Amino acid sequence: MLSERRLQVLRAIVQDYVGTEEPVGSKALTERHNLGVSPATVRNDMAVLEDEGFIAQPHTSAGRIPTDKGYRLFVDKLAGVKPMTAPERRAIQNFLDGAVDLDDVVARTVRLLAQLTRQVAVVQYPSLTRSTVRHVELLSLAPARVMLVLITDTGRVEQRMVDCPAPFGEASLADLRARLNSKVAGRRFTDVPRLVEDLPEGFDAEDRGTVSTVLSTLLETLVEENEERLMIGGTANLTRFGHDFPLTIRPVLEALEEQVVLLKLLGEAGDSGMTVRIGHENAYEGLNSTSVVSVGYGSGGEAVAKLGVVGPTRMDYPGTMGAVRAVARYVGQILAES
């Protein structure tokens, strides 16, 4: 365990390096920070921090820079995230309040996060499997063709065409719509199969085939394999940090194109807590020079998806964590009110 004084020295090194992009020397630390000890003591503390792997010396400089291990300790020992100012909070709310549907909410969230943090923003769409049914609409398009519209509590809308085995009248369709919504409205998607399994038995024999076909389409919609969707923005921000990436940013850009990689980085959507993965903590090698800050968002205190940012390990962690948390909270409020 590091002493409080050495933690203070590490904090000062991280803050200075993030702010100046220059390796930090003991003289600069004592001049810029009120550490209450002599430069010689600071040099000794820096030697201990280096021996324990929290800072390192780039071969071209007499100063020191934080390592992944140093950033990790800095983040773990943060007293709190940097709060957003009142004007920043108002700007977030006003920007997101103008959204007209779920796609617009996600698109605005990506743009906002990228602007606030000046990093790459990643927003996962709310997952169907973690959503609740708000309403199922059935519309007759032809005597034997129906459109099924599934609306979720997160504002997601899924539409499917259903070709029925026999003509299905408006009265029968209205009856099915009413019975279906009485069973599934307000219920978790995972509960729906059990709730509707005996529904066809309540209909006349000639309608049961069509009812079963409609239900099959509904259940297929609930368990789509390709439901996990992401939106990404602000990739151009990486060009401002070219010197933060060894040799080239190409591996980072390639990793950002892999949706599976990004989903793993964001972590399990059901986990609503803040996650910070630093450097080599990212399993994907192409992202070993980056940090990922993510948090769950959703309505009613339960996360239905994740959002976050990807940037170089030399990032303003308190500010980035504060922005990510604030945006997630507003997105959750919008979903709850939608």
- Backbone CA Rg: 26 Å
Uncertain segments are: none
Oligomer: single chain
Counted by DSSP, the helix tally is 12
Q: What fraction, in percent, of the residue positions are helical?
A: 40-55%
Strand order of the largest sheet: 7-3-10-9-8
Q: If you average the pLDDT, what whole number results?
A: 87
Strand content: 15-25%
Main sheet summary = 5 strands, antiparallel
Secondary-structure element pattern, one letter each: HHHEEHHHEEEEHHHEHHEEEH
Total beta strands: 10
Distance between the termini: 48 Å
Instruction: Briefly note the structural class of the backbone.
Output: alpha+beta
In short:
This protein is α+β, with helices and mostly antiparallel strands and 338 residues long. It is built from twelve helices and ten strands.
What's the arrangement of secondary structure elements?
Blueprint lengths: L3 H17 L5 H7 L6 H13 L3 E2 L8 E2 L1 H9 L9 H12 L4 H16 L2 E5 L8 E10 L2 E8 L4 E7 L6 H15 L7 H5 L8 H18 L7 E4 L16 H7 L2 H8 L8 E4 L11 E8 L7 E8 L4 H21 L1
Antiparallel strand pairs: 1-2, 3-7, 3-10, 4-5, 5-6, 8-9, 9-10
Helix pairs in contact: 1-3, 2-3, 5-12, 6-12
List keywords for this structure.
three-stranded antiparallel beta sheet; single chain; alpha+beta; 10 strands
What would your notes on this structure say?
The protein is of the alpha+beta class and 338 residues long. The chain is 44% helix and 17% strand. It is built from 12 helices and 10 strands. It has helices at residues 4-20, 26-32, 39-51, 68-76, 86-97, 102-117, 170-184, 192-196, 205-222, 250-256, 259-266, 317-337, and strands spanning 55-56, 65-66, 120-124, 133-142, 145-152, 157-163, 230-233, 275-278, 290-297, 305-312. It is elongated and about 90 Å long.
